[in-house]
Amino acid sequence: MFRDWVSVSNYVFIVLFCVVYLLRRPAFRQCSSDRYAFLYAFLLVATPPIGFAFRVFQDLNGEINAFFGNLDKPSYNAWWHNLTLWIVVPMVVMLLIHSYLPRGKKALIKKLMYGFMVFVLIFEGLQIQPFYLVQGILAAVGSLCILASCMTYFYSLMTHEEYLSVELLRLPSFWQVTFIFFYVSLNYSSDISFSYLSERNPEFVTSILWVAKVSGVAQSLVFLACFTAPALKIKLENQPSYA
Amino acid sequence: MLDQESQVIAIVLSGIFFAGLMSVFVVAMVFVHRQRQDLARQKLNQLQAEHEKTLLSIENEIQQETLSQVGRELHDNIGQLLSLTKLNLNSSKPEKQAEGLSMLGQVIKEVRGLSKILNLDWVEALTLEDFLAQQLEKIQSTGFCQTELQSDLPLPGLPKEKKIVLIRVIQECLNNALKHAEPKQISVRISLPSAEKALLVIQDDGRGFDASIPSQGSGMSNLSSRMKAIGGSFLLTSKPGAGTKIILDFPI
After folding, report:
1. Which of A65, A197, B116, B220 has its CA 20 to 30 A from that of B230?
2. A29-66 per-position pLDDT tens digit
């Protein structure tokens, strides 16, 4: 259960995020960007423990694996990671960035979301890679969609006049998108080559996963700081409105 | 063991490299953003300075015009009245003296009227419709041409600066029509196409001119830049023999 301090930190973050959610429930209900940011941060810390839980509850995991056609290895939980990290998380990130963008740029992200959904349906429908194994292609497409959304955000940040009145270092969306951008680009190569590397050089995979874990903790800290800033009396800028 | 250690070192180094890269990215973004903010601030200051300059020059023009009007009034009207008053008061006849005193009262009234137009406070008291009505009435009373004023809805109160610019532009348009067009009729229409903007159309049935030929003077560009200074626009359409139409579009 607790293989290292990062695993422990996931549980600590889950507890902290639950407390934040309870305290800031009205704010999350009102503001869609806060809601998506919370969902993203929570999914990142909750996915590994839930994945671990599926390995513990073998019966349920075995049934799900069998549903996806895996009868040999009922302990595999890659399907869970595929579902959350490579389907739900890219969608949540795109929705988050969609909520931050001005109207003209929103259409671009919307097209990206529809395109990604169509790709997922075709990819999973045709079973190009089995769903119960790590899906490198899905990881690559999901990551590219996230990176494209982040680039769109940075482009609008640098070109839209509404941002001129904003102090960038106090803008939560800037830090959130920057950390998402770096987290995804940092783990891009290891995510898409995970299957290959774990077969050829499992020690290297174990080592390289540390980069993902440490950057993930840094990212969770940033999101936690954004959520708790009002309670900690840290003055943050509001997202500019595009009237 | 050594292999594992070198892997760890490589990963730590790559982690540090990416952290550095991220820091550089953040610093670069903030730097570019600050530069954009500075540029925008400079542009805003420049626009404000230009706006103030335009207003100042318009105020100067109005004051100069007012002074020459005052000069004319003093010479042609008050001076004459005072001379007559002096003659009447010097007379030994009581009815002439009484007439002189009544003239003195008239002079006082005229001087009071003049003192009111010496500062620009009248601009604040006057609405744009009132100003237009006065100007058109003045034109009609001189017998140059017929005038007509139409207004769909009353204009909401405009700030003094905006009103000064509009007054100056309207005066210039009417003067140009009288000077160059020889019209039989000048009509002015005010409309409010939306809650945020107003349209003022000045139309004459005079000689007109080919508006596609660029004018040699700076009058038109001055009018256009003045309208821009208050966030509005100036559009002129004219054809030889078909009169001239000027559309002033401005925010309210």
Report:
1. B116
2. 888 889 999 999 999 999 988 988 888 888 888 888 88
The whole-angstrom separation of Cα B36 and Cα A157 is 11
Alpha helices in A57-171 (DSSP H): 58-67, 78-83, 89-100, 103-125, 136-159
Q: Cβ contacts (< 8 Å) between A163 and chain B: which residues?
A: 33
Q: Are B219 and B238 in contact (CB under 8 A)?
A: no
Domain count, chain A: 1
pLDDT 10s digits, A192-241: 777 777 778 777 777 777 778 888 899 999 999 999 988 888 888 888 87
Q: What does each C-alpha distance from B132 to A14, A188, B165, B229 come to in angstroms?
A: 71, 70, 14, 21
A195: in domain? yes
Which position has the token pair 């075995």? Answer: A62
The one-character DSSP state at B43 is H
What is the C-alpha to C-alpha distance for residues A109 and A92, in angstroms, rounded to an integer? 12
Quick check: is A9 in a domain? yes
Residues of B in contact with A190 (CB under 8 A): none
Q: Is the pTM of this model over 0.80?
A: no
Range of the domain at A87: 5-228
N-terminal to C-terminal alpha carbon distance within chain B:
78
Token pair for residue B143?
């017998």
In the predicted structure, residue B2 carries a pLDDT above the cut 70: no
Q: Which amino acid, residue B54?
A: T
Give the pair of three-digit tokens for residue A173. Answer: 């969306």
Parallel/antiparallel/unpaired status of strands B185-191 and B146-151: parallel
Q: Is residue A233 part of a domain?
A: no
| Cβ pair A203:B32 closer than 8 A | no
- Chain B's closest residue to A170, CA to CA, is B30
- Interface A-B, measured as beta-carbon pairs within 8 A, has a size of 44
Give the gap in angstroms from C-alpha B7 to the nearest C-alpha of chain A. Answer: 7
> Domain B121-251 in CATH: superfamily?
Histidine kinase-like ATPase, C-terminal domain (3.30.565.10)
Q: If you search the block for the tokens 């499992």, which residue do you land on? A: A202
Mean pLDDT for the stretch of residues B45-70: 82
ipTM over 0.85: no
Give the single-character DSSP code of A113: H
Strand partners, A243: none
Query: Which residue in chain A is spatially nearest to B21 when comparing CA positions?
Result: A182
B108, B78 contact by CB (below 8 A): no
Residue B206, both tokens: 């005079």
Looking at the predicted structure, is the pLDDT value of residue B77 above 90? no
| pLDDT tops 90 at residue B28 | yes
Residue-wise pLDDT for B85-101, tens only, equals 888 888 888 888 888 88
The contacts of residue A176 (CB under 8 Å, 6+ apart) are A37, A96, A222, A223, A226
Residue ranges of domains in chain B: 1-119, 121-251
Judged by CB atoms closer than 8 Å, whether chains meet at B33 and A168 is answered as yes
